[in-house]
Design a protein that fits this description.
Strand content: under 5%
Structural class: mainly alpha
Largest sheet: 2 strands, antiparallel
Distance between the termini: 84 Å
Radius of gyration: 22 Å
Order of helices and strands: HHHHHHHEEHHHHH
Helix content: over 70%
Length: 324
Amino acid sequence: MSAINENSTSQIESPKYGEKYRLELANRGQAIVIQETATSAVISSIAIVGNFLVLLAVYRNPNLRKTQVLYVSALAVADMSMNVVLGPPAAYGLAMGNEDFGKVPCVIIAILGCTSGTYTYLIICLMAVQRYSTMLNTRLHSTLFTRRKVKISIAITATGTLTFIVITGILSDVQFHPGFACCLAHYEKVDKVPVWVMLSLISIPALISHFCYIRIWRYLRQHREQMAQSAISAAEVKTSRIFLLVINSFSICLAPFMIVTFIEIFTGTMYTVPRQVYLATTNLAGFSSCINPIIYAALSRPFQQEFGKMFVCKRRRNDAVAPV
């Protein structure tokens, strides 16, 4: 009889069912609650504002509406959307110490968040292939990456990703993860086939992106010697270096989150690491959405100029209405 009770207690307290993590989330000290909530809210706010400024710069400056910048705009939309969808629920869950969104809202949040995240991977892959063709295969670039075809690829990627997630029902069983602080699929219950397809939609584009940029990086190392014979402009070289920095930053920030998620999917067991580790990977993944605007502002002259105009105009308007 005691053995049965011990087994029952062990099963209830097992991290597999998330009870330990929910209790830990609910029983944090006030200082930890403030720190975790503020960190999540600040990261989401920076990502939303930063990527909005990128889109505003593209809208205001005709020189930033080139074909190669279309993917930059699409990436900014994906990053901003992901933080709009996932940021407020995460901050709310961390602030309240629990989640009471209800089943349907949690499923909607998971679908939109998963769509934005997967869409980001695919857009970065398209950016990498475009850069590769620009630097190393101009014939492929002129054939595949016309302005019209780039717009079509962006639309197909967005609608195709959302359609796949909705039709397959990969997020039909969703729960609030007290570690990640977001609504996620319950990997122990959902059909494994769509899960493996989703992993392919993430891992294959990631491999393609890194292959393309490794080839570009090798080319750029030799570019100075080849400059006299190359038809590639210095501006294209700088653009490739910026995009190379974007994908490396993105990969570094997303790697911990993806590693933990892959481990849970492969083992079929959730709640395998401490709650603080889950939350750290979530914050780092969110920070990946903040990096791109910073990189553009630091390294891209057109973006620097447009951001400067925005803030200079705002300061001048404030000075004009200031009391004497």
